[in-house]
Specification:
The complex is a heterotrimer of chains A (about 325), B (about 375) and C (about 325). Chain A is mainly α and about 325 residues long. Chain A is built from 16 helices and two strands. In chain A, α7 crosses α9, α10 runs antiparallel to α11 and α12 runs antiparallel to α15. Chain A starts with about 25 loop residues before the first helix and ends in a 7-residue tail after the last helix. Classes of the chains: A mainly alpha (about 325), B alpha+beta (about 375), C mainly alpha (about 325).
């Protein structure tokens, strides 16, 4: 029988709704559902939260048992991440302590001193972050530009074997990194591109190209072709039409694609691990190698992780309406 | 089959009235058409009867059974949607069987009743196809089949022909009408097409601005519209409505010498309603006027449209007031020339410009 | 958008200055626009693939001074007869099955939960999507910390507060006793955590695409909520669910970053997935380039075969509806 008392749900329903959706029972179910989702979301976000707070823990806090949520925040992780340090010998310790007390030492030095170390210079990680920025940034520009041209041609013209070509472009993204890396390593060695910025930029450009083509084609497909036809009739050339009509209207799509390419290049690990060693090494593989040096530098790893977490949170929110396209290469839209 | 009764049923969307409180009784076996322009509340009314829309206040009864707050599934009504709403992943047979399967009927019963409906609608050839492969007309036949197989208390149809091509419409209209005659099922049918409404409805409920304007048979709403809205909305073109003034049995219509003596049986009611003089709107259908050489009224030919069986003249009584008059298809009426015409005294109607309501003959007598 | 007058006038001026510049034909524009991208893909993807196919038939090590020596199918037959490798394939298959299966269930459930809007549902949905955007190697590293038996949060949160009686997930030990397979489960848990949102995202878009009128028709047809789910919701989202499963299965066979960050294949070889082992053969130890190329091709063929199966099934479903 019905979920209702004789006189309805007990409140006036002034929106469009099915009778069985306003019943008191379904209202209760809906709030139950909201609570369930909230609980699941919290559970799923615990690791992210732990990641964020661990970046501000000192080594001793991180390895304490039981693990703590409330602690005295410390920038030790960041100092460890960005500097090379040496142990201060017993003899020189009083001298350092005095310097710290008189305020001669900067914040970074003081934090290092807390674990009995002095700063000897910036760490490799600084260089690797720089590499990451250069490689991710430039490769993204190239993929988006090349991808935009190709996407426009695929979207607006009959290209011989279009579907096959597009499928081929998509399939390159499905290759396991290791499979392509073996021959690439040999090729790069021949060309002197191993462990160079140029080599990595080329590689990441190609890596993101399929994504860029597919995403941008989706966006361009959505622009009615009539605008361009009108411009062509008005005497614009194809090239002018592309720059004056298509480009301005694809701006949102270009922005979304750019951000996706950036984040994927920023996050990339496998190629960088296998094709770089020092000169062009990016941040992800070098965070992982921090496990090695003289015990696990958990505070440094946690601090480094923050550099991957924060962009992701921003990007997830900024691109929430395009995430579906981004992670399925535009194969699935709305 | 069932009687449907709406008592002071009202629907608000936020502060907006989609349906102002209305009363309506649909009798057992009757075919009632809800007619009105888009946004008049006719579909909302239908959806409230079905339970797909809640009421804000008021009561709905199905055969004396109060169903206001029953789920759609508990009301035992079938609903035919404008866009057919067939299940795209199921075959035609599965679509028709769906309501029976949902009730957990036995396989034999399902087969038997599906076949019955399939015979009735003559859609055997479609049974194993999927809806997307069917023409609009066939899709609607399947949707009807899905409704019929239920043997429900009442059928509700929301513009079932609205999504069909013009040539399908006519034949489907006949099919639905035929089905109703055979099954004699209580049916509420929503449309914005007045021709469809007049052709199909036992009774027509004309709605506008969230209110019922008139309830009546095709003839009643066509020849005796309750108000200016109905007069205008029904018919194509609608009823001619000419703002005029009345004094002492004579109506002064626009144009130099257009004085129209009021027919005898109208004198008393008009005099009563207008207190011997005042503004009045004269209404008459295009086919209720006749072009004659010595007609009492005159105007200039503005345009002539040939309709095949007849021609439709637009006649300028003065600058603003144009009336439509049906003319002989064989006679040539040069544009700009003067024509004279008479209005059939039986068929002339009068409206009060203040209330926009019709002035009634009978009420006074 | 309309072409504003300023633009038109500049074009007019350009045209006057340079009367009738020869315009590129559409054909040459297509070539000009497509070929740079294609060439790059050919140079960096197609050529390497052929190159490594050749290498697969040779005995070669990238760090030896010797040139590749053609050995025919020797690499392939050795790989297919290598029990160790079969074990890694089996581990990979188990990992794919477990994690894709669980992701599908969890993701589908999540999608059903957040499909109906409530206050804050948009925010929560976006928050849930964060894990899949994080770099997998960082996720791996971080979960290594989470799983740590003494100072990790994971055990603590699931109720093991005493390290000596708690599971040491990544060492496959429970209170000191070895429990083989535990580390793989630990990896599966992280993979499910990371990628269930992906399945949710796709299923959600499938759910949103189901028109309301189908549910209205079903309500009229007296279908119960359960009946509606099985007969309308499920069949309607199946195509997108399959796409999600296809993507995830391919990714599971490629899984590398996560493992490298978290276990490096250990303990022993309990989480040695095939792509991790491929890396080990190609770039560590003796650099068995020829043999690794052959193994890479075998993995590639498996991935292509799986994708084809899915795509055929998908097309079949599309053909029916």
């Amino acid at each position: 029988m019905s979920n209702f008392r004789e006189d309805g749900p007990g409140y006036p329903v002034t929106e469009a709704s099915r009778v069985d959706k306003v019943s008191p029972i379904s209202r209760r179910l809906r709030s139950l559902r909201a609570i369930t989702v909230m609980v699941i979301a919290i559970i799923m976000l615990i690791p992210v939260f732990v990641m964020a707070i661990t970046a501000f823990k000192s080594r001793s806090v991180i390895v304490s048992h039981p693990p703590t949520i409330f602690f005295k925040p410390s920038l030790e992780g960041f100092v460890f991440l960005f500097t090379d340090r040496a142990v201060v010998s017993k003899a020189r310790q009083p001298e350092f302590k005095a310097a710290a007390e008189t305020g001669e030492l900067g914040l970074v030095e003081r934090i290092a001193l807390e674990s009995g170390q002095e700063v000897t210079g910036p760490s490799d990680y600084v260089n690797r972050l720089k590499n990451s920025l250069i490689i991710a940034g430039l490769s993204t520009i190239f993929s988006v530009v090349l991808g935009l041209f190709a996407a426009y041609a695929f979207s607006r013209f009959d290209v011989l074997g279009k579907d096959d070509l597009l499928f081929f472009i998509l399939s390159t993204r499905m290759l396991p990194a290791v499979v392509v890396t073996i021959p690439l390593f040999l090729m790069f060695r021949q060309l002197g591109l191993n462990d160079t910025h140029l080599g990595m930029i080329l590689l990441y450009t190609v890596f993101n190209l399929s994504l860029a083509v597919w995403l941008l084609k989706g966006f361009i497909d959505e622009i009615p072709v009539e605008y361009e036809e009108a411009a062509l009739v008005d005497g614009y050339s194809r090239i002018q039409t592309f720059f004056k009509i298509v480009l301005p209207q694809t701006m949102t799509g270009i922005a979304a694609t750019t951000v996706f390419c950036l984040i994927f290049a920023w996050n990339e690990y496998a190629f960088a691990l296998m094709l770089t060693s020092d000169n062009a090494r990016t941040a992800p593989p070098s965070i992982a190698t921090m496990l090695g040096r003289g015990g696990i530098e958990w505070s440094a790893i946690a601090a480094g992780s923050l550099g991957f977490l924060i962009p992701v949170v921003i990007v997830t929110f900024a691109l929430r309406n395009y995430l579906l396209r981004g992670v399925t290469f535009g194969a699935v839209r709305k | 089959m069932a009687t449907i009764e709406l008592r002071q049923v009202e629907k608000k969307f936020g502060d907006l009235h989609a349906v102002k409180p209305l009363d309506l009784t649909i009798h057992d076996g009757e075919f009632v058409v809800l007619l009105g322009p888009s946004g008049c509340g006719k579909t909302t009314t239908l959806r409230m009867i079905s339970g797909l829309e809640t009421v804000t206040s008021g009561e709905i009864y199905l055969d004396e059974r109060k169903v206001t707050w029953l789920n759609p599934s508990e009301r035992d009504i079938a609903f035919v949607f404008q866009l057919f709403a067939l299940y795209p992943h199921l075959t035609v047979r599965q679509n028709i069987a769906f309501p029976l399967q949902a009730q957990g009927e036995s396989r034999e019963t399902i087969n038997e009743r599906v076949n019955e409906v399939v015979d009735l609608l003559q859609i055997e050839r479609l049974l194993n196809a999927r809806p997307s492969k069917l023409s609009g007309g066939d899709q609607q036949r399947v949707a009807l089949g899905r409704a019929l197989v239920r043997r429900p208390e009442a059928f509700l149809m929301d513009e079932p022909l609205g999504a069909l091509d013009a040539d399908f419409r006519e034949s489907m209209r006949a099919e639905i009408k035929r089905l109703h005659i055979d099954q004699h099922a209580t049916t509420v049918y929503v449309t914005h097409d007045q021709v469809e409404a007049m052709a199909m409805g036992d009774r027509i409920v004309v709605m506008s601005e969230a209110e019922i304007q008139q309830v009546g048979s095709s003839n009643e709403v066509y020849y005796d519209p309750a108000n200016i809205f109905v007069a205008n909305f029904i018919g194509s073109p609608g009823m001619n409505l000419v703002s005029s003034s009345y004094s002492d049995g004579i109506i002064h219509m626009p144009g130099a010498d257009n004085r129209y003596p009021v027919p005898d049986d109208w004198r008393a009611p008009l005099g009563e309603a207008l207190q011997d003089s005042g503004d009045v709107i004269v209404g008459f259908r295009p086919e209720c006027a006749e072009i004659v050489e010595d007609g009492t009224l005159a105007g200039n030919v503005y345009t002539v449209d040939l309709y095949g069986a007849y021609s439709m003249l637009a006649v300028n009584m003065n600058e603003q007031d144009i009336v439509h008059i049906r003319g002989d298809r064989l006679i040539h009426y040069p544009i700009g020339t003067q024509v004279r015409f008479d209005i059939d005294p039986e068929m002339v109607r009068f409206f009060d410009p203040a209330t926009e309501k019709t002035i009634k003959r009978e009420a006074i007598q | 958008m309309s072409i504003n007058e300023a633009q038109v006038s500049t074009v007019d001026q350009e045209m006057k200055k340079q009367p009738r510049r020869r315009q590129l034909s559409d054909r040459s524009i297509v070539n000009l626009f497509i070929w740079p991208a294609l060439l790059l893909l050919i140079a960096m993807n197609v050529f390497p693939l052929f190159y490594s196919l050749y290498l697969g038939f040779t005995d070669y090590s990238a760090i030896a001074r010797q040139q590749p020596v053609w050995v025919g199918f020797q690499n392939f037959s050795r790989i297919l007869n290598d029990e160790q490798l079969w074990k890694y394939f089996a581990t990979t298959g188990r990992f794919a099955l477990l994690s894709v299966g669980l992701q599908t269930l969890v993701g589908f459930g999540l999608a059903m939960l957040v499909n109906e809007k409530f206050k804050g549902s948009g925010l929560l949905t976006t928050l849930i999507l964060i894990p899949m955007m994080i770099s997998p190697v960082v996720v791996g590293l971080f979960w290594k910390l989470m799983y740590n038996p003494t100072f990790g949060f994971f055990n603590y949160l699931i109720g093991f507060t005493n390290p000596s009686t708690a599971p040491d997930w990544l060492a496959s030990r429970f209170a000191g006793t070895p429990v083989p397979g535990m580390a793989l489960w630990a990896v599966v848990i992280v993979d499910v955590w990371m990628w269930s949102p992906f399945v949710m995202l796709l299923v959600l878009s499938g759910l949103k695409a189901i028109p309301d009128y189908l549910y209205e028709a079903a309500a009229i047809d007296r279908a119960s909520a359960w009946f509606q789910f099985w007969r309308i919701t499920l069949p309607q989202v199946t195509p997108l669910l399959l796409i999600a499963v296809l993507f995830r299965t391919i990714e599971a066979f490629k899984a590398f970053d996560l493992i490298m960050g978290m276990t490096g294949g250990g303990p022993g070889d309990q989480t040695e997935l095939i792509s991790v082992n491929l890396y080990r053969q190609a770039f560590l130890g003796q650099w068995r380039t020829g043999r690794a190329s052959a193994l890479a091709y075998i993995i590639l063929i498996i991935i292509i075969a799986i994708s084809n199966l899915y795509i055929r099934y998908l097309n079949q479903m599309k053909g029916e509806s």
